[in-house]
Design a protein that fits this description.
Two copies of one chain form a homodimer. Chain A is an alpha+beta fold. Chain A has five helices and seven strands. The structure holds a DNA duplex.
DNA sequence: GACCTTACTGCGAACGGTTGGCGTCTGTCT
DNA sequence: AGACAGACGCCAACCGTTCGCAGTAAGGTC
């Protein structure tokens, strides 16, 4: 059995991880004086299992409402807000359309194509020299992952 | 006389420059098939004489309406839009509140403090290494001055 | 200078994303 | 179990911006 269904085991394992992670985040929420509701649990789960790392409030709403139709949009905003304050997610304003959220441990910056709208993730280290220079010259500490760089992607030159 | 009122002369000179600059931009607008109206002239003048380099559509509206009260907000948006297409101004989304516009020849990037909202201008060259790295690694060409970097300014650490 | 085309205008309504107030409900601590 | 503080659904308002409309006027052409 073990050798016959490794993928299945793997999925179980991932599922287990997700639930554990969900609980950890909810605990964080509770230890901050917050309360745990089914809505919040679903929102956190949606964040952890999102196909894309960049989800809009609308994306989260769709995922959550698939299972819990009466979780209201404003609840999603409020919960995402709480999660951001707790440092669980980052909210990034990509400039066009709504903001996107992603987990802080998916640390990266964003390149947004002003033509086709494509979002490219780039690792932090590309920005390190810039961050260093800004800190040294201006005393300005860049907030990690809070901003997007606009330009033209490879395909849209 | 010349030695007695240099400032006055200087102001006259600046004023002359501004009107010349206004005309140059309006000519650009016309040569693109556009038309010149008192509203547009006032909008361009407002841009050129703005105290701050970063003006919101509201700022422009206030300045324009001081002299021409019936120039409508939507006209300002439309004109700023045209000017951006012509490459006269850049529109920058600072993330909070409205977008700001500035002349392209005031080339700079923006550091926005997420705490106090202060905007620091930084010269292009600080970003050159980053822009080079993004172009080399991702084929991504950064749009000059279209984005803002979020973080904490020196006073808000 | 009159004319005609077409762009620009003021107006106001609508948009999209987000926030706020309300009264009710429900976790959580004791 | 009871009490209190959050969180909830609902929905209206918010802000910056865009759009459609009908009217006006700029600027090339004769």
């Amino acid at each position: 059995m073990g050798a016959m269904a490794p993928v299945h085991h793997h999925e179980q394992h991932e599922h287990h991880d997700v639930e554990e992670h969900v609980s950890a985040i909810l605990d964080l929420l509770r230890s901050d004086g917050g309360r745990i509701t089914t809505g919040r649990r679903a929102i956190v789960r949606a964040l952890l299992t999102a196909a894309d790392h960049h989800v809009t409030a609308e994306d989260v709403t769709a995922a959550v409402q698939a299972e819990h139709p009466d979780v209201h949009l404003s609840t999603i905003y409020r919960t995402l807000d709480s999660l951001e304050r707790l440092g669980v997610v980052n909210r990034v304003n990509l400039g066009h359309g709504g903001a996107v959220y992603h987990l802080v441990d998916h640390a990266h910056h964003h390149l947004v194509c002003e033509r086709c709208g494509a979002v490219t993730e780039v690792p932090d280290d590309v920005f390190d020299p810039l961050a260093g220079a800004l800190a040294a010259r201006y005393g300005f500490v860049v907030s990690p992952h809070r901003f997007a760089v606009t330009g033209r992607c490879r395909d849209c030159q």
